[in-house]
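Take a minute with the sequence and C-alpha cells given here and flag any C-alpha cell that looks odd. Thanks in advance.
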Amino acid sequence: SNAAISFLSEFVVQNFTALGGLFTGQVEMDQLSGPIRIIEQGGKVIEKNGMHQGLILTAIISTILAVMNLLPIPALDGGHILFLIIEALKGSPVKKSIQEGFVQAGFMVLLLFMAFVVVNDVVHLFQPSTPTPVEASSPKKMQESHVDVTTPSE
C-alpha cells in the first residue's frame, strides 16, 4: 500500500541522511550499528513491543540494505550497474582488469568498514547504554508515524 511505501521510504531517506552526515561530520562514527547491536536492539524491540514490531524492524532493515546495495560501490550490485552504464555510454566494456581492480578495492573498503562496525559494536557492549539509531527511532518512530503498524492495510 502507499502508506507502507511511504513508511519504509522515510526510513531509507533517514538512513541516507545519516550516511551523508558521516561524511560531513554531523553524525559520529560511533553511532553506526553493526550486526551485534542490530540483534541486541531487535531483541529489545521484540521483548518490549512484540514480534509484530520486530518483523517491521526486519522489513525496515531489509529495505535499507536493498537500497544501499544499489549504491555505486564496485563490490556491490550498484557498482556492477555503474560499469554497465559506463559500457552503454562509451559503447564498449570497461577493461576487465580495471573492473577487477575497482571491485577488489571496493571489497577491501567494505571489509574494513564491516570490521570497524563490529569492533564498534563490541566496544558499545562494554559501555553504559546509550540510545542507538535503531533504539532511538524504531518503536517510538513506528508509533509516531501515520502508518497503522498493528493491522495490515487493505
